Protein backbone atom coordinates (compact mmCIF):
# COMPACT_ATOMS: atom_id res chain seq x y z
CA UNK A 1 0.00 0.00 0.00
CA UNK A 2 1.09 3.63 -0.47
CA UNK A 3 2.49 5.29 2.63
CA UNK A 4 1.06 8.68 3.59
CA UNK A 5 3.71 10.97 2.17
CA UNK A 6 4.49 14.56 1.32
CA UNK A 7 5.57 15.50 -2.17
CA UNK A 8 7.14 18.42 -3.97
CA UNK A 9 6.30 19.21 -7.62
CA UNK A 10 9.46 19.59 -9.70
CA UNK A 11 9.37 21.29 -13.10
CA UNK A 12 12.29 21.82 -15.46
CA UNK A 13 12.83 22.58 -19.17
CA UNK A 14 16.10 21.66 -20.86
CA UNK A 15 17.31 21.87 -24.45
CA UNK A 16 19.53 19.43 -26.32
CA UNK A 17 20.89 19.82 -29.83
CA UNK A 18 20.66 16.83 -32.13
CA UNK A 19 23.34 16.02 -34.70
CA UNK A 20 22.99 17.88 -37.96
CA UNK A 21 21.32 15.82 -40.69
CA UNK A 22 22.43 16.44 -44.26
CA UNK A 23 20.04 15.80 -47.14
CA UNK A 24 20.57 15.99 -50.89
CA UNK A 25 17.86 17.46 -53.11
CA UNK A 26 17.56 17.57 -56.88
CA UNK A 27 14.90 19.47 -58.80
CA UNK A 28 14.30 20.64 -62.36
CA UNK A 29 13.33 24.31 -62.65
CA UNK A 30 11.61 25.79 -65.68
CA UNK A 31 12.11 29.34 -66.90
CA UNK A 32 8.73 31.17 -66.69
CA UNK A 33 7.07 32.06 -69.97
CA UNK A 34 7.50 35.76 -69.18
CA UNK A 35 11.30 35.40 -69.01
CA UNK A 36 13.69 35.20 -71.99
CA UNK A 37 15.72 32.08 -72.80
CA UNK A 38 18.71 31.54 -70.56
CA UNK A 39 22.28 31.33 -71.77
CA UNK A 40 24.44 31.44 -68.64
CA UNK A 41 23.72 31.51 -64.91
CA UNK A 42 25.94 33.95 -63.04
CA UNK A 43 24.50 33.55 -59.53
CA UNK A 44 22.30 31.06 -57.69
CA UNK A 45 21.51 30.96 -53.98
CA UNK A 46 18.93 29.29 -51.78
CA UNK A 47 17.40 29.83 -48.35
CA UNK A 48 15.67 27.04 -46.47
CA UNK A 49 12.46 27.46 -44.52
CA UNK A 50 10.74 24.80 -42.40
CA UNK A 51 6.99 25.08 -43.01
CA UNK A 52 5.59 22.29 -40.85
CA UNK A 53 6.64 19.42 -38.59
CA UNK A 54 4.70 16.44 -37.31
CA UNK A 55 5.84 14.17 -34.48
CA UNK A 56 4.87 10.50 -34.87
CA UNK A 57 5.96 7.18 -33.38
CA UNK A 58 8.95 6.81 -35.68
CA UNK A 59 10.30 10.34 -35.54
CA UNK A 60 9.58 13.79 -36.96
CA UNK A 61 8.17 14.46 -40.42
CA UNK A 62 9.55 17.76 -41.76
CA UNK A 63 7.96 19.75 -44.59
CA UNK A 64 9.88 22.67 -45.98
CA UNK A 65 10.94 24.64 -48.99
CA UNK A 66 14.03 26.22 -50.49
CA UNK A 67 13.54 29.68 -51.96
CA UNK A 68 15.90 29.92 -54.92
CA UNK A 69 17.20 33.23 -56.23
CA UNK A 70 19.21 33.33 -59.41
CA UNK A 71 20.45 35.72 -62.06
CA UNK A 72 21.21 34.71 -65.61
CA UNK A 73 22.38 36.13 -68.91
CA UNK A 74 19.69 35.76 -71.59
CA UNK A 75 20.29 34.01 -74.90
CA UNK A 76 19.85 37.32 -76.69
CA UNK A 77 21.41 40.20 -74.79
CA UNK A 78 20.04 43.72 -75.07
CA UNK A 79 20.78 46.96 -73.31
CA UNK A 80 17.40 46.66 -71.59
CA UNK A 81 17.92 43.10 -70.32
CA UNK A 82 21.66 42.49 -69.69
CA UNK A 83 20.90 40.38 -66.59
CA UNK A 84 17.68 38.56 -65.68
CA UNK A 85 16.55 37.86 -62.08
CA UNK A 86 14.51 34.72 -61.48
CA UNK A 87 12.97 33.15 -58.38
CA UNK A 88 11.88 29.56 -57.87
CA UNK A 89 10.86 27.22 -55.07
CA UNK A 90 11.89 23.64 -54.24
CA UNK A 91 9.56 21.78 -51.85
CA UNK A 92 10.81 18.84 -49.79
CA UNK A 93 9.84 16.38 -47.07
CA UNK A 94 12.19 14.52 -44.76
CA UNK A 95 11.82 12.30 -41.70
CA UNK A 96 14.16 12.66 -38.74
CA UNK A 97 14.28 9.20 -37.18
CA UNK A 98 15.18 9.89 -33.55
CA UNK A 99 12.76 9.32 -30.67
CA UNK A 100 11.04 12.25 -28.99
CA UNK A 101 9.50 12.26 -25.51
CA UNK A 102 5.76 12.85 -25.14
CA UNK A 103 6.34 16.19 -23.41
CA UNK A 104 9.01 17.38 -25.84
CA UNK A 105 8.90 20.33 -28.17
CA UNK A 106 11.14 20.58 -31.19
CA UNK A 107 12.50 23.42 -33.27
CA UNK A 108 14.01 22.55 -36.65
CA UNK A 109 16.28 24.98 -38.46
CA UNK A 110 18.11 24.56 -41.73
CA UNK A 111 20.42 26.08 -44.29
CA UNK A 112 21.64 25.42 -47.79
CA UNK A 113 25.32 24.56 -47.60
CA UNK A 114 25.92 24.20 -51.31
CA UNK A 115 23.89 24.67 -54.48
CA UNK A 116 24.95 23.54 -57.95
CA UNK A 117 23.18 23.54 -61.30
CA UNK A 118 23.18 22.07 -64.78
CA UNK A 119 21.58 23.82 -67.75
CA UNK A 120 19.44 21.24 -69.58
CA UNK A 121 18.31 23.63 -72.30
CA UNK A 122 17.44 27.29 -72.71
CA UNK A 123 14.18 26.80 -70.76
CA UNK A 124 15.21 24.36 -68.05
CA UNK A 125 17.96 23.81 -65.49
CA UNK A 126 18.59 21.09 -62.91
CA UNK A 127 19.43 22.30 -59.40
CA UNK A 128 21.23 20.15 -56.82
CA UNK A 129 21.45 21.24 -53.20
CA UNK A 130 23.25 20.06 -50.08
CA UNK A 131 20.99 21.01 -47.18
CA UNK A 132 21.56 20.83 -43.41
CA UNK A 133 18.79 20.30 -40.85
CA UNK A 134 19.53 21.02 -37.20
CA UNK A 135 17.08 20.24 -34.40
CA UNK A 136 16.70 21.61 -30.89
CA UNK A 137 14.66 19.35 -28.61
CA UNK A 138 13.10 20.90 -25.50
CA UNK A 139 12.37 18.22 -22.89
CA UNK A 140 9.94 19.15 -20.12
CA UNK A 141 10.39 17.26 -16.84
CA UNK A 142 7.34 17.38 -14.56
CA UNK A 143 7.80 15.07 -11.57
CA UNK A 144 6.18 14.74 -8.12
CA UNK A 145 9.17 14.26 -5.85
CA UNK A 146 8.83 12.21 -2.66
CA UNK A 147 9.96 14.23 0.37
CA UNK A 148 8.90 12.17 3.42
CA UNK A 149 6.45 9.61 4.81
CA UNK A 150 4.27 10.74 7.65
CA UNK A 151 4.48 8.84 10.96
CA UNK A 152 7.31 6.55 9.81
CA UNK A 153 10.94 6.34 10.84
CA UNK A 154 12.27 6.82 7.34
CA UNK A 155 15.98 7.13 6.59
CA UNK A 156 16.49 9.37 3.57
CA UNK A 157 19.54 9.76 1.33
CA UNK A 158 19.51 13.29 -0.04
CA UNK A 159 21.53 14.88 -2.81
CA UNK A 160 21.87 18.55 -3.61
CA UNK A 161 21.71 19.25 -7.34
CA UNK A 162 22.32 22.39 -9.36
CA UNK A 163 20.86 22.77 -12.83
CA UNK A 164 20.21 25.46 -15.42
CA UNK A 165 16.55 25.78 -16.31
CA UNK A 166 15.01 27.45 -19.36
CA UNK A 167 12.56 29.55 -17.37
CA UNK A 168 10.91 31.19 -20.38
CA UNK A 169 10.67 30.88 -24.15
CA UNK A 170 8.98 33.49 -26.29
CA UNK A 171 8.32 34.32 -29.92
CA UNK A 172 7.83 38.06 -30.40
CA UNK A 173 6.78 39.25 -33.89
CA UNK A 174 7.79 42.67 -35.10
CA UNK A 175 6.98 44.50 -38.34
CA UNK A 176 9.78 46.56 -39.84
CA UNK A 177 8.77 49.29 -42.27
CA UNK A 178 11.39 51.71 -43.56
CA UNK A 179 12.50 53.64 -46.59
CA UNK A 180 16.11 53.41 -47.79
CA UNK A 181 17.35 56.24 -50.00
CA UNK A 182 20.25 55.65 -52.37
CA UNK A 183 23.41 57.69 -51.90
CA UNK A 184 24.12 60.95 -53.69
CA UNK A 185 25.65 60.30 -57.07
CA UNK A 186 24.09 56.87 -57.52
CA UNK A 187 21.87 56.52 -60.62
CA UNK A 188 18.13 56.14 -60.24
CA UNK A 189 16.70 52.69 -59.67
CA UNK A 190 15.39 50.90 -62.74
CA UNK A 191 15.01 47.27 -61.65
CA UNK A 192 15.91 45.26 -58.54
CA UNK A 193 18.03 42.25 -59.51
CA UNK A 194 18.73 40.69 -56.12
CA UNK A 195 18.79 41.48 -52.44
CA UNK A 196 20.04 39.98 -49.20
CA UNK A 197 19.00 40.93 -45.66
CA UNK A 198 20.81 39.95 -42.48
CA UNK A 199 19.46 40.65 -38.96
CA UNK A 200 21.99 40.63 -36.11
CA UNK A 201 21.82 41.21 -32.38
CA UNK A 202 23.89 44.20 -31.29
CA UNK A 203 23.28 43.98 -27.57
CA UNK A 204 20.65 43.02 -25.03
CA UNK A 205 19.98 43.72 -21.39
CA UNK A 206 17.33 42.74 -18.86
CA UNK A 207 15.73 45.57 -16.91
CA UNK A 208 12.68 45.25 -14.65
CA UNK A 209 11.43 41.94 -16.09
CA UNK A 210 11.90 43.16 -19.63
CA UNK A 211 14.49 42.14 -22.24
CA UNK A 212 15.67 45.12 -24.26
CA UNK A 213 17.14 44.03 -27.60
CA UNK A 214 19.00 46.30 -29.97
CA UNK A 215 19.52 44.78 -33.41
CA UNK A 216 21.05 45.75 -36.74
CA UNK A 217 19.64 45.08 -40.20
CA UNK A 218 22.18 44.81 -43.00
CA UNK A 219 20.91 45.36 -46.56
CA UNK A 220 22.61 44.41 -49.82
CA UNK A 221 20.48 45.37 -52.82
CA UNK A 222 21.67 44.89 -56.39
CA UNK A 223 19.87 46.94 -59.03
CA UNK A 224 20.00 48.21 -62.59
CA UNK A 225 19.45 51.83 -63.55
CA UNK A 226 17.47 53.03 -66.54
CA UNK A 227 20.65 54.22 -68.26
CA UNK A 228 21.80 52.65 -71.53
CA UNK A 229 24.62 50.09 -71.15
CA UNK A 230 23.87 49.99 -67.43
CA UNK A 231 25.85 47.58 -65.28
CA UNK A 232 24.51 46.26 -61.96
CA UNK A 233 24.94 48.58 -58.98
CA UNK A 234 25.25 47.49 -55.34
CA UNK A 235 23.46 49.49 -52.66
CA UNK A 236 24.52 48.71 -49.07
CA UNK A 237 22.81 50.11 -45.99
CA UNK A 238 22.37 49.45 -42.28
CA UNK A 239 19.59 50.32 -39.89
CA UNK A 240 18.77 49.54 -36.26
CA UNK A 241 15.71 48.75 -34.21
CA UNK A 242 14.99 48.22 -30.52
CA UNK A 243 12.52 45.64 -29.24
CA UNK A 244 11.09 45.20 -25.73
CA UNK A 245 10.02 41.71 -24.61
CA UNK A 246 8.42 41.09 -21.20
CA UNK A 247 9.69 38.14 -19.16
CA UNK A 248 8.82 36.79 -15.71
CA UNK A 249 11.10 36.61 -12.66
CA UNK A 250 14.19 38.03 -14.35
CA UNK A 251 16.22 38.20 -11.12
CA UNK A 252 19.15 35.80 -11.11
CA UNK A 253 19.16 34.99 -14.83
CA UNK A 254 22.48 33.54 -15.99
CA UNK A 255 22.03 33.75 -19.76
CA UNK A 256 19.65 34.61 -22.56
CA UNK A 257 19.63 33.63 -26.23
CA UNK A 258 18.17 35.58 -29.14
CA UNK A 259 17.74 34.71 -32.78
CA UNK A 260 15.70 36.21 -35.60
CA UNK A 261 13.49 34.50 -38.18
CA UNK A 262 12.73 36.46 -41.34
CA UNK A 263 9.29 35.23 -42.39
CA UNK A 264 8.70 37.68 -45.21
CA UNK A 265 10.48 40.64 -46.77
CA UNK A 266 9.25 42.79 -49.65
CA UNK A 267 11.45 45.45 -51.22
CA UNK A 268 9.96 47.65 -53.93
CA UNK A 269 11.04 50.80 -55.76
CA UNK A 270 9.48 54.07 -54.67
CA UNK A 271 9.68 57.69 -55.84
CA UNK A 272 11.03 60.40 -53.58
CA UNK A 273 9.47 63.83 -53.03
CA UNK A 274 11.00 65.01 -56.31
CA UNK A 275 9.37 62.11 -58.23
CA UNK A 276 12.75 60.45 -58.75
CA UNK A 277 13.16 56.67 -58.32
CA UNK A 278 15.68 56.79 -55.49
CA UNK A 279 13.97 54.93 -52.63
CA UNK A 280 13.68 51.26 -51.64
CA UNK A 281 10.48 50.70 -49.67
CA UNK A 282 10.96 47.83 -47.18
CA UNK A 283 8.24 45.81 -45.44
CA UNK A 284 9.56 43.04 -43.24
CA UNK A 285 7.80 40.39 -41.13
CA UNK A 286 10.29 39.38 -38.45
CA UNK A 287 10.02 37.06 -35.42
CA UNK A 288 12.39 37.35 -32.47
CA UNK A 289 12.94 34.11 -30.55
CA UNK A 290 14.21 34.47 -27.01
CA UNK A 291 15.15 32.03 -24.25
CA UNK A 292 16.05 33.06 -20.71
CA UNK A 293 18.01 30.74 -18.41
CA UNK A 294 18.37 30.57 -14.65
CA UNK A 295 20.54 28.31 -12.48
CA UNK A 296 18.63 26.71 -9.62
CA UNK A 297 19.21 24.35 -6.68
CA UNK A 298 17.10 21.31 -5.89
CA UNK A 299 17.30 18.70 -3.15
CA UNK A 300 16.58 15.21 -4.49
CA UNK A 301 15.91 12.13 -2.37
CA UNK A 302 17.70 9.32 -4.18
CA UNK A 303 17.16 6.46 -1.71
CA UNK A 304 15.16 5.56 1.43
CA UNK A 305 14.55 2.72 3.86
CA UNK A 306 12.75 2.02 7.14
CA UNK A 307 14.78 0.12 9.77
CA UNK A 308 11.57 -1.41 11.18
CA UNK A 309 9.50 -2.18 8.07
CA UNK A 310 9.92 -3.36 4.54
CA UNK A 311 9.24 -0.69 1.93
CA UNK A 312 9.31 -0.47 -1.84
CA UNK A 313 10.57 2.70 -3.48
CA UNK A 314 9.56 4.01 -6.91
CA UNK A 315 12.03 6.12 -8.88
CA UNK A 316 12.18 8.29 -11.96
CA UNK A 317 15.21 9.43 -13.93
CA UNK A 318 15.91 13.16 -14.11
CA UNK A 319 18.67 14.42 -16.42
CA UNK A 320 20.02 17.86 -15.55
CA UNK A 321 22.35 20.23 -17.33
CA UNK A 322 24.29 22.93 -15.51
CA UNK A 323 25.78 25.91 -17.33
CA UNK A 324 29.44 25.97 -16.22
CA UNK A 325 30.80 28.70 -18.48
CA UNK A 326 30.46 30.72 -21.64
CA UNK A 327 32.77 32.80 -23.79
CA UNK A 328 32.75 34.51 -27.17
CA UNK A 329 35.22 35.70 -29.77
CA UNK A 330 35.20 37.93 -32.84
CA UNK A 331 37.22 36.01 -35.40
CA UNK A 332 38.81 38.00 -38.25
CA UNK A 333 38.64 36.03 -41.51
CA UNK A 334 40.78 37.49 -44.27
CA UNK A 335 41.65 35.95 -47.61
CA UNK A 336 42.83 37.00 -51.08
CA UNK A 337 40.79 35.17 -53.72
CA UNK A 338 41.96 34.64 -57.27
CA UNK A 339 39.57 34.98 -60.20
CA UNK A 340 39.17 31.44 -61.65
CA UNK A 341 41.33 30.91 -64.72
CA UNK A 342 38.30 30.12 -66.88
CA UNK A 343 36.80 33.57 -66.18
CA UNK A 344 37.89 36.94 -67.58
CA UNK A 345 39.55 39.68 -65.53
CA UNK A 346 37.41 41.97 -63.44
CA UNK A 347 36.66 45.63 -63.83
CA UNK A 348 34.78 46.01 -60.54
CA UNK A 349 32.98 43.95 -57.91
CA UNK A 350 29.21 44.38 -57.80
CA UNK A 351 27.91 41.89 -55.23
CA UNK A 352 29.32 39.75 -52.40
CA UNK A 353 27.33 37.65 -49.94
CA UNK A 354 28.60 35.25 -47.30
CA UNK A 355 27.32 32.56 -44.96
CA UNK A 356 29.13 30.55 -42.33
CA UNK A 357 29.10 26.83 -41.52
CA UNK A 358 30.58 24.94 -38.60
CA UNK A 359 32.62 21.95 -39.79
CA UNK A 360 33.72 20.54 -36.42
CA UNK A 361 34.80 21.19 -32.84
CA UNK A 362 36.76 19.51 -30.07
CA UNK A 363 38.03 20.28 -26.57
CA UNK A 364 41.71 20.71 -25.76
CA UNK A 365 43.09 21.96 -22.42
CA UNK A 366 39.96 23.88 -21.34
CA UNK A 367 39.62 25.34 -24.84
CA UNK A 368 36.79 24.86 -27.29
CA UNK A 369 38.38 24.53 -30.74
CA UNK A 370 35.82 25.56 -33.36
CA UNK A 371 36.39 25.04 -37.08
CA UNK A 372 34.28 26.28 -39.94
CA UNK A 373 34.16 27.80 -43.40
CA UNK A 374 32.96 31.13 -44.71
CA UNK A 375 31.27 30.52 -48.07
CA UNK A 376 31.31 33.68 -50.22
CA UNK A 377 29.44 34.30 -53.47
CA UNK A 378 31.03 36.97 -55.67
CA UNK A 379 29.63 38.79 -58.71
CA UNK A 380 31.76 41.12 -60.80
CA UNK A 381 31.71 43.06 -64.04
CA UNK A 382 34.44 41.95 -66.43
CA UNK A 383 36.81 44.26 -68.29
CA UNK A 384 35.65 42.79 -71.60
CA UNK A 385 34.32 45.17 -74.21
CA UNK A 386 30.72 44.13 -73.53
CA UNK A 387 31.31 44.31 -69.72
CA UNK A 388 29.49 41.09 -68.96
CA UNK A 389 28.71 39.93 -65.43
CA UNK A 390 30.35 36.80 -63.98
CA UNK A 391 30.17 35.01 -60.68
CA UNK A 392 32.04 32.43 -58.65
CA UNK A 393 31.97 30.92 -55.17
CA UNK A 394 34.81 30.22 -52.73
CA UNK A 395 35.09 28.74 -49.23
CA UNK A 396 37.44 30.29 -46.70
CA UNK A 397 38.32 28.06 -43.71
CA UNK A 398 38.80 29.39 -40.17
CA UNK A 399 39.73 27.97 -36.76
CA UNK A 400 39.34 29.57 -33.33
CA UNK A 401 40.15 28.49 -29.77
CA UNK A 402 37.73 29.76 -27.11
CA UNK A 403 38.81 29.33 -23.50
CA UNK A 404 36.27 28.25 -20.86
CA UNK A 405 37.45 27.43 -17.33
CA UNK A 406 36.64 23.85 -16.32
CA UNK A 407 35.88 22.72 -19.86
CA UNK A 408 36.59 19.03 -20.53
CA UNK A 409 35.76 16.52 -23.25
CA UNK A 410 32.80 15.12 -21.27
CA UNK A 411 31.00 18.48 -21.29
CA UNK A 412 28.37 19.54 -23.81
CA UNK A 413 29.20 22.69 -25.79
CA UNK A 414 26.65 24.65 -27.82
CA UNK A 415 27.71 27.15 -30.49
CA UNK A 416 26.27 30.30 -32.02
CA UNK A 417 28.12 31.39 -35.18
CA UNK A 418 27.20 34.38 -37.36
CA UNK A 419 28.85 36.66 -39.91
CA UNK A 420 28.74 40.14 -38.40
CA UNK A 421 30.61 42.01 -41.10
CA UNK A 422 31.67 41.31 -44.68
CA UNK A 423 33.79 43.69 -46.74
CA UNK A 424 35.60 43.27 -50.05
CA UNK A 425 38.05 45.09 -52.27
CA UNK A 426 39.52 44.50 -55.72
CA UNK A 427 43.30 44.33 -55.39
CA UNK A 428 43.85 44.11 -59.13
CA UNK A 429 42.07 42.67 -62.17
CA UNK A 430 42.71 39.10 -61.02
CA UNK A 431 42.42 39.23 -57.21
CA UNK A 432 39.78 40.15 -54.62
CA UNK A 433 40.40 40.58 -50.91
CA UNK A 434 37.57 39.44 -48.61
CA UNK A 435 37.55 40.64 -44.98
CA UNK A 436 34.95 39.25 -42.60
CA UNK A 437 34.18 39.35 -38.88
CA UNK A 438 32.77 36.01 -37.67
CA UNK A 439 31.24 35.96 -34.18
CA UNK A 440 31.43 32.69 -32.21
CA UNK A 441 29.82 32.11 -28.81
CA UNK A 442 30.48 28.88 -26.91
CA UNK A 443 28.32 27.80 -23.96
CA UNK A 444 29.40 24.77 -21.91
CA UNK A 445 27.17 22.50 -19.83
CA UNK A 446 27.84 19.74 -17.33
CA UNK A 447 25.38 16.86 -17.58
CA UNK A 448 24.31 14.68 -14.66
CA UNK A 449 21.49 12.15 -14.21
CA UNK A 450 19.68 11.37 -10.95
CA UNK A 451 17.42 8.45 -9.97
CA UNK A 452 14.96 10.31 -7.74
CA UNK A 453 12.27 8.95 -5.45
CA UNK A 454 8.72 9.64 -6.56
CA UNK A 455 6.81 7.32 -4.22
CA UNK A 456 7.20 4.87 -1.32
CA UNK A 457 5.06 1.76 -0.81
CA UNK A 458 4.83 0.38 2.74
CA UNK A 459 4.73 -3.43 2.76
CA UNK A 460 2.93 -5.42 5.46
CA UNK A 461 6.01 -7.49 6.29
CA UNK A 462 7.80 -6.49 9.50
CA UNK A 463 11.56 -6.79 9.56
CA UNK A 464 12.59 -9.73 11.76
CA UNK A 465 15.63 -8.94 13.85
CA UNK A 466 15.48 -11.73 16.47
CA UNK A 467 17.49 -14.22 14.41
CA UNK A 468 20.43 -11.83 13.99
CA UNK A 469 23.08 -11.18 16.67
CA UNK A 470 22.66 -7.98 18.67
CA UNK A 471 26.21 -6.83 17.93
CA UNK A 472 28.02 -7.25 14.63
CA UNK A 473 31.67 -6.58 13.81
CA UNK A 474 31.78 -5.43 10.23
CA UNK A 475 34.94 -5.04 8.12
CA UNK A 476 34.48 -2.42 5.39
CA UNK A 477 35.28 -3.21 1.79
CA UNK A 478 35.75 -1.28 -1.44
CA UNK A 479 32.58 0.51 -2.57
CA UNK A 480 31.08 0.70 0.92
CA UNK A 481 29.46 3.83 2.28
CA UNK A 482 27.84 4.51 5.63
CA UNK A 483 24.48 4.71 3.87
CA UNK A 484 24.86 1.27 2.25
CA UNK A 485 25.97 -0.35 5.52
CA UNK A 486 23.20 1.27 7.57
CA UNK A 487 20.54 0.30 5.03
CA UNK A 488 21.79 -3.30 4.75
CA UNK A 489 21.90 -3.87 8.53
CA UNK A 490 18.71 -1.94 9.33
CA UNK A 491 20.37 0.67 11.49
CA UNK A 492 21.09 4.37 10.97
CA UNK A 493 24.15 6.39 10.03
CA UNK A 494 23.84 8.35 13.28
CA UNK A 495 23.95 5.16 15.36
CA UNK A 496 27.01 3.86 13.50
CA UNK A 497 28.85 7.14 14.09
CA UNK A 498 27.89 7.27 17.77
CA UNK A 499 28.89 3.66 18.59
CA UNK A 500 32.22 3.94 16.74
CA UNK A 501 33.07 7.44 18.01
CA UNK A 502 33.40 8.75 14.46
CA UNK A 503 34.23 12.42 13.97
CA UNK A 504 31.66 14.43 12.01
CA UNK A 505 32.68 14.63 8.37
CA UNK A 506 34.97 11.61 8.49
CA UNK A 507 34.71 8.92 5.83
CA UNK A 508 35.38 5.20 5.84
CA UNK A 509 38.13 3.28 4.06
CA UNK A 510 38.36 -0.40 3.03
CA UNK A 511 39.55 -2.61 5.89
CA UNK A 512 38.16 -0.58 8.78
CA UNK A 513 36.30 -2.39 11.57
CA UNK A 514 32.90 -1.06 12.59
CA UNK A 515 30.66 -2.14 15.45
CA UNK A 516 27.04 -2.38 14.33
CA UNK A 517 24.24 -2.61 16.88
CA UNK A 518 20.97 -4.05 15.69
CA UNK A 519 17.73 -2.28 16.52
CA UNK A 520 15.63 -3.87 19.28
CA UNK A 521 11.92 -3.28 19.76
How would you characterize this protein structure?
The protein has 521 residues and is mainly β. It is built from 2 helices and 21 strands. It has helices at 482-488, 493-499; strands at residues 5-17, 21-30, 38-55, 60-74, 84-96, 104-121, 124-149, 155-181, 191-206, 210-224, 233-246, 253-271, 277-305, 309-338, 346-364, 367-382, 389-403, 412-428, 431-462, 471-475, 513-517. The strands form 7 sheets. Strands 1, 2, 6 and 7 form a 4-stranded antiparallel beta sheet that branches. Strand 15 (346-364) and strand 16 (367-382) form a beta hairpin. The two termini are 23 Å apart.
The helix/strand series, from N terminus to C terminus, equals EEEEEEEEEEEEEEEEEEEEHHE
Question: What fraction of the residues are assigned to beta strands by DSSP?
Answer: over 45%
- The rough form would be described as elongated
Main sheet properties: 4 strands, antiparallel
Gyration radius over CA: 32 Å
Integer average pLDDT? 90
DSSP strand count: 21
Could you give the distance between the termini?
Answer: 23 Å
Structural class: mainly beta
Helix content: under 10%
Low-confidence stretches: none
* Helical segment count: 2
Helices and strands, with pairings:
Layout: E1 5-17, E2 21-30, E3 38-55, E4 60-74, E5 84-96, E6 104-121, E7 124-149, E8 155-181, E9 191-206, E10 210-224, E11 233-246, E12 253-271, E13 277-305, E14 309-338, E15 346-364, E16 367-382, E17 389-403, E18 412-428, E19 431-462, E20 471-475, H1 482-488, H2 493-499, E21 513-517
Antiparallel strand pairs: 1-7, 2-7, 3-4, 4-5, 6-7, 8-13, 9-10, 10-11, 12-13, 14-19, 15-16, 16-17, 18-19, 20-21
